[in-house]
Design a protein that fits this description.
4 helices; mainly beta; 182 residues; 6-stranded mixed sheet; 5-stranded antiparallel sheet; globular; 14 strands
Amino acid sequence: VEALFGKGHTLTSMKELYQKGNYAAEETVMVVGPRRRTLPTVRILGPTRAASQVELAFTDSISLGVDAPVRHSGRLDGTPGCVLVGPKGAVELKNGVIRAARHVHMNEDEAARLGVKDGDEMKMRVESPANSVVFENILVRVDPATRLEVHLDTDEGNACNLDAATDVKLFATGAGGGCART
């Protein structure tokens, strides 16, 4: 943060996210990929973490010219890097650019109700006027402090016309698993 925004700078929360303690910051950076292709205004999510990570949708990775693998957050070994540019400096990341794998956050009560545990996988069916889509391989992340929330990237949300969805169902993939309607 200091390398990009200046000595002593800390992130400023613009908007709280659904998961408590997480927020979209006022600050944005330019992401520079190979061949100097850029995404000029990428919002930072806080709080800061031990390692920098850039999560891109597939179309953004194509636009930047980055071959970003689908990975779960924090699994950055063997991933490509990029350059982040802020108003006070730049940082070259040797790795850390990924396409975030779809996942669902939930607490223990929600996991018990759905018949899943941390590390399991689920499916989600999205019904919308133009089409219906089933997403598979949704990693379950169970933590006492979280609330039920599925994370898809913008390409996936657009593909199923999520904004116009008439019904969304989350299914456990194992025997005896439950279903939640959101």
